[in-house]
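Why do we care about 3D structure at all? Because function follows from shape, and shape follows, mostly, from sequence. That is the central idea of this module. The next example makes it concrete: a single protein chain, its amino acid sequence, and then its structure expressed as tokens.
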Amino acid sequence: MAIIPQFYESFNPILKALKALGGSGSIKEINDKVIESMNLAGSVLEQLHDPESRNETEVEYRLAWARTYLKKYDLINNSSRGIWALTEKAENVPVVDPDEIVEQVRLQSRKQGERVPESKPDEPSLAVDDDVDQGWEAELHRILTKQLEPAAFERLVQRILRESGFVEVHVTGRSGDGGIDGKGIAKIHGIMSFHVIFQCKRYLGVVSAGEVRDFRGAMVGRADKGIFITTGTFSRDAVKEATRDGAPPIDLMDGEQLAAKLKELRLGVKVEKVEKVTVDPDWFQTRANARVSQILVLQGFAI
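And the structure:
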């Protein structure tokens, strides 16, 4: 099995990627640049970190840790919209020493009362702050892959497409049909329409390029576009195959995007906003003074 680079080995590639992107970029843009520069093999990219809880690959997991360390070292930061950017400090740093960053960040963490190991292990031990709490995603992944029956998952996809504006969405459920699980019509602004077929794969692993090709073979001559939805993830070759020039286009939705869509549509995912109530003493004081002044004027007093 090919060796996966440790998280600290990607410090410099991440900084280099951000500089190539103009100083800022999304996680996907950064990861793609890093993977390209480190020339990682397909077998490395397809290894999942914990397929039982989510569809994140081991490389993505370690890159998330690397971003956390670089952020704590004040070389990069991230916005609420998930965009990462170089700090002013990073602009003047051509190359960093990974050992120094790990040592300084862990020293900082010890001062803040966090438990960290004495040596530099392969596995980081700090609290990753790449994203907001993702516990709900792990629970959703478990439900979709362990509890939901295949037929129920197909009906869930049918509901998602309907809620997203598709019409005449039907689940075919026929075996031996090249992986086609359903069809529908995508309406664009109520004027244009595209016939779409979709495949649902309730899966813990990585969807290969071959599976995407098989799906395309089944859709040729039967639809304008295809949609491949999985609870797992897609290999880089599968992504390339889906957008190959001269071939019918296929849109891909992996487990992470599926979770985000269910959250957006509030399908089985509740989003609770905590109400924070505070009292403004100045408001009451201003109102009280204004009321007293009004009374005095009415009684003939000069203010």
